[in-house]
Write a structure and sequence with these properties.
The protein is of the alpha/beta class. The protein is built from 17 helices and 14 strands.
C-alpha cells in the first residue's frame, strides 16, 4: 500500500487571509483549534500523510505534491472554495469537498470538484481513500450519523498551535435537539444530539491543559448526559467554556454540577427580546422575560455570558436596536455576537423565504452574517444593516468595554476575565474596526 499525501484546506475571507506562513491578520481569539479538520485527519486510514492548511494562518500551496486535496467550507466561503478547486484541478489535482455547504447543496458543489463528502467525515473518508487508491472515486459519498464512541483522538501536531485561541479543545456531544429555523448546525445533524462515552471524554480531558473549550453545539442538549459528565469532571479541576441554552440557569442541579466541574463561561443564543420572534423561530425553551434573571443567576455562580442576538426577524422594527442595547447594559452581558438574520441553504428559514420570494441576494460570500440578503418586513435593508453595526459599535465602545471589564471583577474569576472576556472584547474592537462595522455604525440614527 503506497503512501498517499492529502492536503486539507480551510479557506477564509480575503480580509483575514494570511499572506505568508504565520502572518495572521485577525485576533487570535476568533481562531479556534480546527477541531473538524483534526477529526478528518484522525479518520484517515493507514498510509495517508495529512497536512492541514488554514488560510487564516498560512497561504495555500498550489504547487503541493499532494495526491488529493480536500476543501471543507461553510456557505459564505463557497466562492473561495470553488476558486481554490478550479486552480488545483487545472494543475491535475483531484479535489474533494466536505462541510456544511456541500452537504446542503450537493448539486451545485459537485460541479466544482471530483467528489463530495456529504455529512460527517469519519465514515466517508476511509471509503473515499480506498476508492481513490483503486481508481474508482465516486462523485458523492453519504454518511450515516457517526457513533461518537468510534472517534479517534486527533493529533494537535498538525497545527501551528500558537496561532489559535487554545489547543485544548474537544467535543463531548454533536448536534442539538432544538429546531431553530435559522440554524444550519442543527439541520446538519438532523436535529438530533449524540454523545460520547463519558469515560472517553474524561480520558481526553486528562491529556489537555487546565483551561479547555468544549466545541459542542449545545453541551446540555442531553440533560442527563450533561449532569453525568459534569459530575465526573469535578475531580479533574478543569476550567472550561462552551455553549448551551440559557435555561441551564433554571436547573439548580445541573447548574451546580457545571459550576463544581469548573464552568467559567458560556455562549448562549438569546437571539431576540421578542417572544413572538422566538416562537416563530421555534427557538427551544427561551423565555425573553426571564433573561435578566437567568443571566444574574449565571453571574452569581461565576459564569461569564457571551450572548448571541439575531436581528431582522419579521417582528423587528428599527426600535429593536436601542431596546436591545439597553437590555445588554442592564443584564451586564460580558460579550456579544450580533448578527443579521441569514437564511442559510439547508434550513427551514431558507425554504420559507425562498418560496416567498424574499431572498434577493444569492452571492454566497454575503452569507456571513455581515450582509442583508433578504427583504426585511418592518424596516429597510439599510436600517437592518446599519442598525446591527450600531449596536456593535455602541457595545464595544471604549467606554462600555472599560466599564464592563471593571464590573466583572465582582462576579467572575480572574482567569475567566483574563482568558475569556478581555480577549473577546478587545478582539471584537480590532475585528469590527478592520471590517468596517464601526464606520457603518455611525450611519444609523437610533
Amino acid at each position: 500500500m503506497y503512501n498517499l499525501k492529502f492536503d486539507l484546506i480551510s479557506p477564509t475571507a480575503s480580509i483575514w487571509r494570511a499572506e505568508r506562513k504565520g502572518g495572521t491578520r485577525g485576533p487570535r481569539v476568533f481562531r479556534f483549534s480546527m477541531l473538524p479538520s483534526l477529526a478528518v485527519a484522525a479518520s484517515m486510514p493507514d498510509g495517508v500523510e495529512t497536512r492541514i492548511i488554514d488560510e487564516n494562518v498560512e497561504p495555500v500551496d498550489f504547487d503541493t505534491d499532494a495526491d488529493l486535496v480536500g476543501i471543507s467550507f461553510m456557505t459564505f466561503l463557497a466562492p473561495r472554495a470553488y476558486e481554490l478547486a478550479a486552480r488545483f484541478r487545472d494543475r491535475g489535482k483531484t479535489v474533494i469537498f466536505g462541510g456544511y455547504h456541500p452537504s446542503f447543496m450537493p448539486d451545485e458543489a459537485i460541479a466544482h470538484c471530483d467528489a463530495l463528502c456529504v455529512g460527517e467525515a469519519e465514515y466517508n473518508v476511509p471509503r473515499m481513500i480506498a476508492d481513490f487508491r483503486a481508481g474508482n472515486l465516486k462523485p458523492i459519498y453519504r454518511s450515516t450519523p457517526v457513533d461518537l464512541s468510534d472517534l479517534r483522538l486527533p493529533s494537535e501536531d498538525l497545527l501551528q498551535g500558537k496561532h489559535y485561541l487554545t489547543p485544548n479543545v474537544l467535543q463531548a456531544t454533536r448536534g442539538c435537539p432544538y429546531r431553530c429555523k435559522f440554524c444550519s448546525i442543527a439541520a446538519f445533524h438532523d436535529y438530533q444530539i449524540r454523545t460520547r462515552p463519558v469515560d472517553a471524554v474524561l480520558d481526553e480531558l486528562r491529556r489537555l491543559g487546565r483551561q479547555v473549550v468544549f466545541m459542542d453545539d449545545n453541551i446540555i442538549g442531553d440533560r442527563d448526559y450533561a449532569l453525568e459528565l459534569f459530575n465526573a469532571m469535578i475531580p479533574l479541576r478543569k476550567r472550561w467554556f462552551s455553549q448551551c441554552g440559557i435555561h441551564i440557569a433554571d436547573d439548580p442541579e445541573l447548574l451546580r454540577a457545571a459550576v463544581r466541574s469548573g464552568c467559567g463561561g458560556l455562549f448562549v443564543g438569546l437571539e431576540s427580546l421578542s417572544q413572538e420572534n422566538l416562537s416563530n423561530w421555534t427557538k427551544g425553551p427561551n423565555r425573553a422575560t426571564e433573561y435578566v434573571r437567568q443571566i444574574q443567576r449565571l453571574h452569581s455562580n461565576g459564569i461569564g455570558v457571551y450572548a448571541g442576538f439575531v436581528f431582522g426577524s419579521d417582528g423587528d422594527s428599527p426600535a429593536v436596536f436601542r431596546q436591545t442595547l439597553e437590555f445588554l447594559d442592564e443584564a451586564r452581558i460580558d460579550a456579544l455576537q450580533a448578527t443579521r438574520l441569514t437564511p442559510f441553504p439547508g434550513t427551514p428559514l431558507f425554504d420559507e423565504m425562498d418560496q416567498a420570494g424574499r431572498i434577493f441576494d444569492r452571492d454566497w460570500s454575503h452569507y456571513n452574517f455581515g450582509h442583508v440578503v433578504f427583504e426585511p418586513l418592518h424596516m429597510s435593508r439599510e436600517n437592518l444593516d446599519r442598525g446591527v453595526a450600531w449596536v456593535l459599535r455602541q457595545f464595544y465602545s471604549r467606554r462600555r468595554v472599560t466599564r464592563r471589564l471593571a464590573g466583572e471583577a465582582r462576579y467572575l474569576a480572574p482567569s475567566t476575565i483574563a482568558r475569556g472576556t478581555v480577549p473577546l472584547n478587545l478582539g471584537y474592537r480590532v475585528r469590527l474596526g478592520r471590517d468596517g462595522t464601526f464606520d457603518k455604525g455611525r450611519q444609523f440614527a437610533a
